[in-house]
Automatic annotation (TrEMBL):
One of its GO terms (molecular function) is metalloendopeptidase activity. One of its GO terms (biological process) is CAAX-box protein processing. Signal peptide: none annotated. The chain crosses the membrane at residues 6-25, 55-75, 95-116, 137-163, 169-189, 286-305, 317-336. Keywords: Hydrolase, Membrane, Metal-binding, Metalloprotease, Protease, Transmembrane, Transmembrane helix, Zinc. This is M48 family peptidase. It comes from Helicobacter jaachi.
Amino acid sequence: MLFIFIGLFVCLYALPSITLALLQIRHIKKELQKPAILLESEDYLQAGAYAIASLRLNIISTLLETILFSAWVCFGLKLLNHELTLLFPQTLNPLWQGVALILSFVLLGSIIELPLSIYKTFGLDKKFGFSKQSPQLFMIDLCKHLLLSLIIGGVIAALLILIIENVALWWIVGFIVLLCIVILANLIYPTLIAPLFNKFTPLEDDNLKARIESLLNTIGFKSNGVFVIDASRRDGRLNAYFGGIGKSKRVVLFDTLLDKISADGLIAILGHELGRFKHKDILKNILIIACLLFVLFFVVGHLPASLFSALGLAQNGAGVIIVMLLISPVLTFWFMPLVGYFSRKAEYAADAFGASLSSKHCLANALVRLVNENKSFPSSHPAYIFFYYTHPPLLQRLKALDYDIQH
């Protein structure tokens, strides 16, 4: 049974992921032989080199993930469970024993994968001029992530354990509770979580602020402010977004964006983001997440007891959650095409809306500016787009905006 479990992980996740990465690498290498588009020749070559290097790193990450999965399945979970049983006294509440098992499982996995994260930040991204992060800031962020994961993850784990072990149709109730937590996270993230990692300051440019607020008023978007974050401390790439739901909504601009994009271009980009709000894309995304969570809970809720026994786990709350974490990459991978399909359609609609608030020309020029500053390679393999892209390829977006690619 364990070999079947590992085989399914390899066939349904690892091999398809690696195959798609190899297809994308081959596609980019072929495109690099052609004349540069949208970027200057030197930037075009650099964007391609970065994309290929990132894909190779993703392949290594997938291989490591597969080895780690196999190790957990074959002996790791049995060993971890045994060591925690020896470590904690028998008098300890079983609930907290379960929480300790889950958090230990997540923590050990994160530690094993940490070297790849360090290499990406200080090797790959530094080499191509993206990462601005210092070792000190990296460690501070890491400690904050760890602390938040232990606190929030521990609370969620304890809640789910109680549901799994005390409710008959636990997979339905657990799904509803976790979905509520996802919605709550969207609500509190902009005002409570994000400020722990970035400094948020009100936009000081009164003229730009007035233009943004006028833009928001045209469609009745009520936010609690327009803020600039110090993204340049960590990364040189550009971005802007609307965060939160309900009264927590806020407009967030990267300080890198203000330095590189004109006011007209910025208004066009925000118009696109407003289009997503106008079309209720956040609610649609939550609905899609709900479908994924439902499938995940349904599958784990109907797994045979023999699988838990073979893994060295009791079929209790902690055991169920760990198996859920083990198989979630597989389900997420096969759910991504559905997510991408609806997301790409939404992006086209948001582009059309943004263009109606400014102009097609203005939005297209802003998108081209973004791809130049972020050194994003403008072409991808169709299969890679199908599985991974939540945004349409830039060339297709520009075509929809009547932009002359050779311009």
